[in-house]
Amino acid sequence: MAWSGHPTKRPVLFAVDDLLARVRRLFPFAYSVAGAGNDAAVPVLQSELPSFTVDEYPAGSELNGWVISPPWTVDKATIHKNGALIYDGLVSPLGVITQSESFSGTVTLDTLKRHLFYAEHAPHAVVYHCQQLYRTGERSWGFCVPQRLFEALTPGDYQVELVTRRSAGTMKVLDALLPGASTQTIVFNAHNCHPFQANDDISGVAVGIEVMRRLAERPDRRLTYRLVVAPELIGTTFWLHGLGAEARDLAGAILLKAVGNAADLRLQASFTGTSRLDNAAHHAFRHRYGTYDSGSFRTVYGNDETVFEAPGYEIPTVSLTRYPFPTYHTDRDTPNTLSEERLQDTVAATLDICTALECDVAYRRRFEGLVCLSHPRYDLYQPVWEASLRDGPGRDADRRWNRLMTELPRLLDGRTPLLDIADRVGLPAGDVAAYVARWVDKGLAEPVGGPVVD
User: What is the CATH number of the domain that holds 230?
Assistant: First the structure.
């Protein structure tokens, strides 16, 4: 059975504001690697996608040098000068650097400035400083402040009171599985470790959930799909390690990272750039956008692709992103900056890739000689106009369909995947799959094995 049609032609089955509404529901949590915010978000995520299961890993656990940072709370965070309050780090949930140590004392302006951080690209915003989540050997204290405050500070002594505490807890990774006919699995990944960051990456979480819901509506799935929502780097590292032998089923990963802002969607290739997943992604982007921006591994965006592509796993991983964007890692990254249209576009682009992968099956002919496609017994002729009768925008599509009908009998050789056929003639894989399905229905072709994802 072949997937028919093209995802961009499928009707939207949910209200047009559903994705942005989902972002708003998932936004107001103080996410981290582990902590109360992540814990509180779990039931909300499971209400959005009931198939989510939760894997837990104790804080302090270590794997390949990666350590799960413990839940962390700020009780007090003030800076005074001459008795006047200069800054209260609790005014913003990002006002203190993540995993900051406690500190109490009087410091000079030069010393204070070494512990203040701001966003040069957004001078009025409060920056999100997350470095200590991933560099567990580094522990210091610090505040995140607007650049204008930093530049307004004058020489003198400053009194700092910073009280933080750490507690026991677990890192939680959410994992949703959607089985298909084959155990070959495509993983969607988004991260949930950045507090109050709508685009980075609650947008990816919302899109991933929607993709899984739409895929669940397709009963003829050949591939298995999996959505993993985890703290970046650390969460996916522990989750992948915990799969054991099951990790061999992971045929590819699609990272959904910062995908709701106004910029065009960009594509980042896998480590080799030559996998079947790369081919499917480029195919989908060509037919959806025409021209688009793409780059090789780690040149567009840096995230969990290093985990999936790590030695021993080497899972081909592509990234979809609208990075860079002006509110990146600041308190201005709110749901109000996102676009429902862009979120829906990311869902459609991801489904386009899945369609290309699902169609990537070789077919074997069950006939010899030239078949008269227009004969009523077959009814496989795709009407095209004679060049002498018409020219215009549709002429190029006519030529492509004519080429498909001419070359398909030779390409039904049991070795040429359908995606290669679609690329050869310049047609969307979903359309070619629907046409080949008609050959199968007429008894002229049969699939050979499953999808050829590597």
Answer: 3.40.630.10
**Residue 316 and residue 6: Cα distance in Å, rounded?**
24
Tell me, yes or no, whether 196 and 120 share the same domain: no
pLDDT at 449: 74
In this structure, are residues 150 and 217 in contact, taking their beta carbons and an 8 Å threshold?
no
103: left (phi over 0), alpha (psi -120 to 50) or beta: beta
> DSSP assignment, residue 129?
-
Alpha carbon of 261 to those of 198, 221, 283, 303: distances in Å? 10, 30, 23, 18
Helices 340-358 & 429-441, crossing angle to 10 degrees? 40
Q: Do 35 and 93 belong together in one domain?
A: no
Same domain, 325 and 408: no
Number of folded domains in the chain? 3
Q: Do 160 and 78 meet the contact criterion of CB atoms below 8 Å apart?
A: yes
Q: Alpha-carbon dihedral of residues 212, 214, 220, 222, nearest 10 degrees?
A: -30
For residue 129, give its domain range.
72-165
Quick: pLDDT tens for 233-262.
999 999 999 999 999 999 999 999 999 999
Question: pTM score, two decimals?
Answer: 0.91
Q: Please state the length of the chain.
A: 454
For residue range 38-55, what is the model confidence (pLDDT) as tens digits?
A: 999 999 999 999 999 999
Cβ atoms of 79 and 86 within 8 Å: the answer is: yes
The last residue of one of the domains, among 149, 165, 181, is 165
Residues 272, 411, single domain; the answer is: no
Where is 230: in which H helix or E strand? strand 224-230
Whole-number Å distance between alpha carbons of 398 and 400: 5
